[in-house]
Amino acid sequence: METIFTERHALRNAKTELYGGQLVEPFERPSRAEYIINRVREVGLGPVTEPEDFGLDPILAVHDQTFIDFLKVAWTDWQAAGFQGEAMPTVWPARRMSAHIPNHIEGRLGYYALACETSISEGTWEAAYASAQVALTGAKRILDGANAAFSLCRPPGHHAAIDMYGGYCFVNNAAVAAQSFLDHGSSRVAILDVDFHHGNGTQDIFDARDDVLFISIHGDPMDAFPHFLGHADETGHGAGEGYNFNYPLPPNTDFTTWRAALSKALHQIRSYAPDQLIVSLGVDTFETDPISFFKLKSEDFTTYGADIAALNLPTLFVMEGGYDIAEIGVNAVNVLQGFEGPP
Ligand code: OKP
Ligand code: ZN
Questions:
Q1: Counting ligands in written order, which one lies closest to the CA of residue 294?
Q2: pTM
Q3: Which residue intervals define the domain Histone deacetylase in the entry (predicted)?
C-alpha cells in the first residue's frame, strides 16, 4: 500500500496545550508522524510519496470560506494584537448570546473554536493545508485504481466542522477526501471513524446528506471529548436521516465489545454499497493511550484491519489520533498490514 506523506506536517509544532488547568506540551506533536513513517519504512509497507497540490477549492467544498480565511490569518492577527503566547480563545458565543462575528481576534477565536486546548501557532495553517493535500492525493490514487492508500495526515481532521476548529483539528481531511470522491463521479462514500473520539466535525459536515454515510465508534461523549456530540440517537437530519450512526462505548471497553460495534458498522457499510470507503484511522483506542479509555492491544489493530478488508471496497486510510507515541507506528501500521493480509 502506498503512503502519502510530507515533512510539512512539522510546521504544526505548537508549544502549548491547555490540559488540566496547565499549559503542557501538546499531545498532538510532530514525533507522532515520525514514528508512523518510520514504521511504514521498517516493515516495507510500500512506496512513500509526496502529496500533489490541489489548491483551496477542495477544502472550500466542505468548509465555510470565512472560517478558512480566519485560519489563514489567526496567528498573524494574534501577534498583531500584541499577545505573547500562542492563540487560544477565552470567550464563546454561549447560550442566548449574539451570533455576530467580532472584529477582535479574541472574539473571532471564540467564534470559530469548539474547544480551547488547541493553540494556533506559527505554521499551523500551512501544516493543516498540507495535511488536506495528503488526504486528497490518497483519494486520487484510489480514483486512479489503487485498492487502498494511506494518507499519513497530520494535523488530524475529524473534529474540524464546517466552520469550527478544535480537538487538535483545523481542516477535516477525511471530509475533504470524501467530497473529492463525489466530485470525481462517485455516487456514495462511506466514512468509518475508528478514532477513540467521536468525529463530530465529519458528522457535522455530512449531517443532512445521504451521499456520505458516516459511522463512528468512540468513547461515550457523556465521559469523553468532544462531550457535546456523538450520542447514539444522532442519526442525521433531512435527506441525511438514516445516514449517520454512532456507537458510543463506556470506559474500559475491550476489543471483544469494540469489535462487536465494528461488525454492526461494517454490516451497515456493506448495505450502503459505497463506491469508496474512508477510514478515519485513530489508534488512541490503544490500552495505554494517555488521554483515552479503551483497552485495545497491538494485535487487535491487525485483526480489525482484516475485518475492514473483508468489505472488499476501495479504501482510503486517513490518519487521525493516537497519543501513546512509542507504539503509534506499530498500531497504525498493524491496521494497514491486517487490511492487506498475509504476504
Ligand atoms: C483529537 B483526536 C482529555 C482532553 C482531550 C482533546 C482531545 C482531542 C483528540 N482529558 N482533549 O480525536 O485524537
Ligand atoms: Zn482521538
A1: 2
A2: 0.99
A3: 28-336
ipTM of this complex: 0.97
Whole-angstrom distance, CA of residue 12 vs CA of residue 1: 26
Of 257, 280, 222, 296, the C-alpha closest to 232 is 222
159: annotated active-site residue: yes
| Residue 194 burial (10 A CB sphere; 0-12, 13-18, 19+) | buried
321 C-beta closer than 6 A to ligand 1: yes
| Per-residue pLDDT reduced to its tens digit, 265-289 | 999 999 999 999 999 999 999 999 9
Do 298 and 262 contact (CB within 8 A), yes or no? no
Reported as a single tens digit per residue, the pLDDT across 102-135 is 999 999 999 999 999 999 999 999 999 999 999 9
Centre of ligand 1 from the C-alpha of residue 273, in Å: 32
Q: Which atom of ligand 1 is nearest to the CA of 322?
A: 13
CA 194 to ligand 2 center in whole angstroms: 9
Taking Cα atoms as reference points, which of 179, 132, 122 lies closest to residue 157?
132
In 10 A of CB 187, how many CB atoms?
Answer: 10
Non-local (6+) Cβ contacts of 152 within 8 A are 3, 4, 5, 9, 33, 36, 37, 40, 134, 319
Are the C-beta atoms of residues 14 and 124 closer than 8 Å to each other?
A: yes
Q: Which of 327, 342, 341 is nearest to 289 (CA)?
A: 327
Residues flanking ion ligand 2, Cβ below 5 Å? 195-197, 282, 284, 321
